[in-house]
TrEMBL record:
GO terms for cellular component: Golgi membrane; phagocytic vesicle membrane; Tapasin-ERp57 complex. Keywords: Disulfide bond, Endoplasmic reticulum, Glycoprotein, Immunoglobulin domain, Membrane, Signal, Transmembrane, Transmembrane helix. The keyword Cell cycle does not apply. The lineage of its organism: Eukaryota, Metazoa, Chordata, Craniata, Vertebrata. PANTHER family: TAPASIN. The keyword Transcription does not apply. Residues 277-384 form the Ig-like domain. SUPFAM superfamilies: Immunoglobulin. Heterodimer with PDIA3; disulfide-linked. Obligatory mediator for the interaction between newly assembled MHC class I molecules, calreticulin, PDIA3 and TAP. Up to 4 MHC class I/tapasin complexes bind to 1 TAP. Interacts with HLA-G-B2M complex; this interaction is required for loading of high affinity peptides. On its own or as part of MHC class I peptide loading complex, interacts with ligand-free MR1 or MR1-B2M complex, providing for stable MR1 pools ready for metabolite antigen processing. This is Tapasin. It is a single-pass type I membrane protein. Involved in the association of MHC class I with transporter associated with antigen processing (TAP) and in the assembly of MHC class I with peptide (peptide loading). It is found in: Endoplasmic reticulum membrane. It comes from Cavia porcellus (Guinea pig).
Amino acid sequence: MKLLSLLVAVALGERTLRPRGRNWVLGVGEQGPAARPPARLPAPTLSAPAVSAFADPAGALLAGLRRLLRGDPTPRCEMSRFVPLPAPASWARSLSPEASCPRALDGEWLMVSVSGRDLSLSSLLRKPAELQPEPVLITMATAVLTVLTHTPAPRIRLGQDAVLDLSFAYAPPTPEPAASLAPGPPPFGLEWRRQHLGKGHLLLAATPGLHGQVPAAQEGAVAFATWDDEPWGPWTGNGTFWLPAVRPFQEGTYLATVHLPYLQGQVALQLTVHKPPDVSLTPAPLVWATPGEAPPELLCLVSHFYPPEGLEVEWELQGGPEDGFQKATGEKWLSALHHHSDGSVSLSAHFRAAPVTTKHHGARYACRVRHQSLPTSGRRASVTVEVAGLSGPSLEDGVGLFLSAFLLLGLIRVLSGLVTDCDPQEKVTASTPPTF
Ligand SMILES: *[C@@H]1O[C@H](CO)[C@@H](O)[C@H](O)[C@H]1NC(C)=O
């Protein structure tokens, strides 16, 4: 039970958490401010009602916690009180037509949020008031609504579609007599919004199964908003959100909320956009230099990348006087950023190498670009230095070669003309009628 005690440490200070069938036992031991949360992690909200065990009829909370424990040694956890209230948004009002909170929701409510690298969830737990006479040894709560995402931190390539995963599970707080209810899941509301730099933005709202006005979807957003088609609960639903051709202004925190009458479950996702740069070097693939002179200035074009921050350009020399790889010595500078209409940026890196010696013949200059959108080794482009007079034709050689080729071509043409003119066979075929 090493992993479990780990979650304990993370989630509940020094309390304990043990699975017991479909119930997990939370914190039978020490409670109150004496429980010391581990360093670095936010302290659990100790004013939350004490819960020693919970039942999860829909199974989503348990499955999520197990997955979190397997995949992530340090999930973050928060616990707080929750008060059932009608949805604040006007488009979701029709979900709670009753003037006051139904009796089925009586009791103490608690919200547990746990998030890790691959999963983030939030669950509303109810502690029925009537079933627990004081003093209590075991305090039982039941997970009523769990909302979870498997993409808590989607990283989307600029221009590609974002698919933000969302599922939810609902187990009615008190099983009402079947006869009093129509079979099928309850109506619900789904809401996706983005918070960025202090500004909130409703992107999509839906109330499947209810009539009424909902605000139009923004930015081409689409969501699946469905329950599975079980006649009787608990139910699971899908609220996966799709955003086409993502641009940098769409970065931010996405809040997905599932509204049920008087209950709201919410998870947050952090969307970031990236685009790896194209890297090219000019002049390429060869540069010429004469000993004692510098090769022409090299220009490394780093284009269409995002985000603009954190780009590094290094110049390397491979081969040359010292074998192997080394930092190239010379003058180097970067241009200003050029902004493109799709939100990406480009810049050029310039390099003026020191004068070459004959030992530089065949050496390669490379610009290596590092950026968060690239693997750690970065991306590089290189050119080869040819030192004149060592191998391959020099400029004079080149001119000489061109002239020789020109003369040779002329000679061939003259000769072939002579050959054609002298060909007697051709004249015969042209002037004599065919013979039988
Ligand atoms: C939700 O719906 C989307 C789109 O149909 C699908 O890709 C995804 O797998 C569904 N999620 C679950 C948990 O079924």
